[in-house]
Amino acid sequence: GAQAVGMGQEALKPAIYVTSLAAVEILRARDGGQQIIDSVDVTCGLSLGEYTALAFAGAFSFEDGLKLVKLRGQAMQEAADAAKGAMVSIIGLDSDKVQQLCDAANEEVEEAEKVQIANFLCNGNYAVSGGVKGIEAVEAKAKSFKARMTVRLAVAGAFHTRFMNPALSQLESALSATDIKTPRIPVISNVDAQPHADPETIKKILARQTTVKTLLSRGLVKSYELGPGKVIAGIVKRMDKTSLIENISA
Hints:
Protein name: Malonyl-CoA:ACP transacylase (MAT) domain-containing protein
Largest sheet: 4 strands, antiparallel
GO molecular function: transferase activity
Radius of gyration: 18 Å
Pfam family, one: Acyl_transf_1
Strand order of the largest sheet: 3-4-2-5
Number of helices: 10
Strand content: 15-25%
InterPro entries: Ac_transferase_dom_sf, Acyl_transferase_dom, Acyl_Trfase/lysoPLipase, Malonyl_transacylase_ACP-bd, Mitochondrial_malonyltrans
Number of strands: 9
Structural class: alpha/beta
Order of helices and strands: HHEHHEHEEHEHEEHHEHE
């Protein structure tokens, strides 16, 4: 799933979930589409897209997934509003250099403003999250670390970091009350980049959420990105230009 941008973006997440699953139906209606769907042997999604992947794999119903996505969005928005944070994409450095950049920025700011790597998007493109002052320090130092460029992400908070911890308990209680079944195919988690099928494990990892690399290393042949935007296709192509990936949007 693509990431929505802009303030109040969490309200858009249910629409992205619905649109992504509508794209599945577009694929199903295509000549030979049902055979493609039946032949899929593993699925995954980036951030919100993991919920779409789990619904596609039959781990929970469309309706339950929609409820979870709505609650997740509200909880993350509340956490973002309570602790002002930001995200920036660092382009042109390997993970060690990005970590060194974060360490250097963190030496200059207070604990509450510190930053961390939030998303390993692909080689040479890492998203860093944290307090606004910490992110500003990262941007100021990026050139001296030989980063090609930095791009401030238009999100409402420091997602995928400790800043989101207040959202965890809300999500955990909602997940514990949700009927999650064993998916018909494994779903690779954003948390540990491993395929999971056990419902209890899925509940734990969804509350916490390096995935594409796992797929490529296991012999990914052909893949489909279902939903708005081409975020995953871009990441896959940067990691392996020969990999076949097709985007289908509703």
